[in-house]
Amino acid sequence: MRLVLLGAPGVGKGTQAELVSSQFKIPKISTGDLLREAVRQKTTLGIQAKDYMDRGELVADEVVIGLVQEKLSLPEAAKGFVLDGFPRTVTQADILGRWLESEHIALDHVLYVVIPSEHIVDRLSGRRSCPACQSVFHITSCPPKLEGICDRCGAELIQRNDDRRETVESRMLVYTNQTAPLIEYYKEKNILTELDGFGAVDSVHARLVNVLTQV
Ligand code: AP5
Question: What pTM value is reported for the model?
């Protein structure tokens, strides 16, 4: 299964990608997670990316494409993968398409996750993330067992820099201008399905699995 999760910031792409990854035993490739890890490790790439991410802007196409191609080339991605947060621009989608074609493979599904826009700020402002293992929680909808502590690895949870209200606004604008055109792009390729991302995490996941197993 080769899957892309597309959608505005905070609609639940990362949460669902994690569930898909463990259910279908395919790697989750999240460009946001890869970039945040590079920032945490203070690699050259991380140092370059940090300011863009803190401002809610996109990191240069060639940087993220390089990161994704490296992961897609690993043996564990041979049977499939779920892409979270990539592609994010038409250029990224074109390059991904050409790379897949050169490998004689193709995307099976692009799921366009949608929630009512008035819930996006709540999801992002309530998000708490683990800087060590990248697990994601929410102070009300998916709280950790112990407040402020990651269930999976015990690290202290943080609020992402780009989840501040003013940055969320610029991320939404970037999404509308640069990423939303991918909805038409993948519709034209007949692989896009809209997924209602509103409701409990398990209900959304059940809807998602239904889509994947129907087609
Ligand atoms: P990235 O990390 O990809 O951010 P994003 O796309 O804005 O998505 P989010 O991670 O904010 O949200 P999500 O949809 O994954 O929601 P989540 O599951 O966490 O990118 C960050 C930055 O990196 C970008 O701004 C850019 O600078 C750079 N970048 C990344 N990729 C790039 C690319 N390809 N090109 C260039 N630059 C790139 O859920 C959100 C919250 O809601 C959580 O608290 C969660 O617990 C909760 N939640 C989830 N599902 C539910 C539910 N069903 N009900 C209630 N709460 C829920």
Answer: 0.95
